[in-house]
From TrEMBL:
Keyword Iron listed: no
Family annotation (SUPFAM superfamilies): Six-hairpin glycosidases (SSF48208)
Transmembrane residue ranges: none
Enzyme class of the recorded protein, top EC level: hydrolase
One biological process term in Gene Ontology: cellulose catabolic process
The name this protein goes by in its record: cellulase
PANTHER family: ENDO-1,4-BETA-GLUCANASE
């Protein structure tokens, strides 16, 4: 099933979301992707960038207005984390892409949705939005402190030596999150750690206190680079 659309030669069922059969996870995830893409294209094709941003805003409006999960009708790869993470994820990228303060108000008003987790995956986007908004916190938006605190807790959950670590490492030092498809989670966790370490460095933060252990930005970055270079079996 993992092949290019051009190569598919088997029947494919088509699913859609509507106001009566919502799927906020799907619409919001697509909105986040288009908003991020609009930033990439802004300097090279402003017309296309504006189109991407407009489509992103429409998708977000749909996801937020007709809230509901596609969990009940999805055949595979269902959502287990709910749709709040995707709504925050989309609003965060829309604020970054547009500068529209309404999206900043949205993530601030709904900061209670943010959860401390130890993964960043195709399903769970909390770490992604926390990474994104922690940078905004250090940029002066102090109402986003909840996201900054949650990304610090994420660091404590994955750094070896932390008193609250939740993820094991292999003897060779590779993060080991689960038995199946481990590397996809390793790569996303290490990406989040690298971005967070850069945020801490730019803000001249003193690092993260995890119980009796304290990790500086350089230590977080060093671990992310080390585990990101490893491949099983190690």
């Amino acid at each position: 099933c993992w092949e290019r659309p051009e190569d598919m030669d088997t029947s494919r069922a088509l699913y859609k979301i509507t106001s009566n059969s919502p799927g906020s996870e799907v619409a919001a995830e697509a909105a986040a992707a288009l908003a991020a893409a609009s930033i990439v294209f802004k300097g090279v094709d402003s017309k296309y960038s504006s189109k991407l941003l407009s489509q992103s805003q429409s998708l977000f409006d749909c996801a937020n207005k007709y809230r509901g999960s596609y969990q009940g009708s999805c055949p595979f790869y269902c959502s287990y984390s709910g749709y709040q993470d995707e709504l925050l994820w989309a609003a965060g990228w829309l604020y970054k892409a547009s500068g529209n303060k309404n999206y900043l108000t949205y993530v601030t008003s709904n900061k209670g949705w943010s959860q401390v987790v130890s993964e960043f995956s195709w399903d769970n986007k909390f770490v992604g939005v926390q990474t994104l908004l922690a940078k905004e916190f250090y940029g002066g938006n102090k109402d986003l402190e909840k996201y900054k605190n949650d990304i610090e807790s994420f660091v404590c959950a994955v750094m070896p030596g932390s008193s609250s670590v939740q993820i094991r490492t292999t003897p060779g030092g590779l993060l080991y999150t689960r038995d199946g498809s481990d590397l996809q989670y390793v790569t996303t966790v290490t990406m989040a750690l690298l971005i967070t370490s850069k945020t801490f460095s730019a803000a001249q933060s003193g690092g993260v206190q995890c119980g009796s252990a304290k990790f500086s930005a350089s230590q977080i970055r060093a671990f992310a680079k080390t585990t990101g270079r490893l491949h099983p079996p190690v």
